[in-house]
Amino acid sequence: MIRARVSRAGLAGLTWLAERMSIGTALALATGIGRLWVFVGGPRTRRVREALAAALPALPPREREQLVRQVFVHLARGLVELLLLRGRQRETLLARVEVTGLDHLAAASRASASGGVLVVSAHLGNWELGCAKLAALGIPISVVHHGSRGPRPSALDQALHELRGRAGGETGGVPVEQIPMGRAGLSGVRALRAGRRLLVLLDQNAGREEGVFVDFFGRPACTRSGPITLAALCGVPVVPAFIRREPGGHRHCLEIQPALDLEAAAASDVEALRRSVQRVTQAIEEAVRREPGQWIWTHRRWRTRPGAAVDPGFAGSRARV
Fold first, then answer.
1. How much of the chain is in helix, strand and coil states, percent to nearest 5?
2. Could you count the other beta carbons within 10 Å of the beta carbon of residue 310?
3. Domain that holds residue 108
4. 159 and 278 Cβ atoms separated by less than 8 Å
5. What is the pLDDT of residues 99-153, one digit of tens each?
6. Helices 185-193 and 226-234, axial angle in degrees (round to 10)
7. Residue 96 and residue 315: Cα distance in Å, rounded?
8. Is residue 284 classed as helix, strand or coil in its secondary structure?
9. Number of structural domains, the chain?
10. Considering the domain boundaries, does residue 6 fall inside one?
11. Closest by Cα among 149, 116, 161 to 259
12. The pTM is what?
């Protein structure tokens, strides 16, 4: 209880401090913190170096080290932007996000019997800012989130929950519906049948009972497959969307891509499901390769490894979303 209060107070203090700066000053400070983090060898810097070496072995060591700095600078900038999104500079931040491909989202919605669309993305760029931008444009978004692992939400989880619940300052903005991962099956079906855009991030490690193994950067990665099963069952299109920070660091571009050509049989056949998950993962990898310094290499993406244990198959892969 005391720790939670201290965390909330610390977050409130950081928000107050960020509010007293211009966005440019706050981002410049974050850039310095990110670089210093790498210079002193802060937590997870070694993990990022190892992950980059395994995923991008052909990249010269000097260029990989530059990516390490970019990763932590980007994370620091993203944290500052989340603090600013909570306050009076929210509209200014949202105005700095350009959205391309809204016509692809509209076409997918028209092709769906209910109007619902599964939007797949990744922890690339400032994904929370991208979600807030879509809500500010009046697009009905339901986001599947990881949430807190403990009985009580952490200060950060609580802040993110409040952040997503805001509509933004633009005309027609709507709050984001939030669905906890692991219990999202029925809520996801309801959202899709109500014509909403169900947003899921499919770039994190999954347990054997939750996913299937597909190739990601040349290595087998266990990937959550429930959302793709859900889309096939509901007969809705799957649209990739990724946000990236533009050169200079102050502006962002949210790119919505055309719907993927996935197999309807993914609802009943495990190999069709695996191929569909691979296609989604391929789209994510292509986006990460374009901006490798903006992905969360701090995450242990390949933690679950293939082994002697029985593959979860279709029954396991559709159990949880």
1. 50, 15, 35
2. 8
3. 97-317
4. no
5. 999 999 999 999 999 999 999 999 999 999 999 999 999 999 999 987 555 555 5
6. 40
7. 44
8. helix
9. 1
10. no
11. 116
12. 0.90
* 95: amino acid identity, one letter: A
Q: By C-alpha distance, which of 201, 245, 203, 244 is closest to 222?
A: 203
Three-class SS state of 287? helix
Single-letter residue type at 152: R
Pairwise CA distance, residues 273 & 232, whole Å: 9
Please report whether residue 299 resides in a domain. yes
CATH code assigned at 140: 3.40.1130
CA distance 9 to 26: 20
In a domain, 73, yes or no: no
For residue 35, being part of any structural domain is answered with no
CA angle 268, 272, 277 (to 5 degrees): 110
Query: How far apart, in Å, do the first and last CA atoms of the chain sit?
Result: 31
- The amino acid sitting at 155 is A
Distance of CA 142 to the CA centre of its chain: 13
Neighbours of 237 (CB within 10 A): 22
How many other C-beta atoms lie within 10 A of the C-beta of residue 40? 8
- Under the banding of pLDDT at 50, 70 and 90, the label for residue 311 is very low
Q: Which residue type sits at 173?
A: G
Handedness of CA 280, 285, 286, 292 (dihedral sign): positive
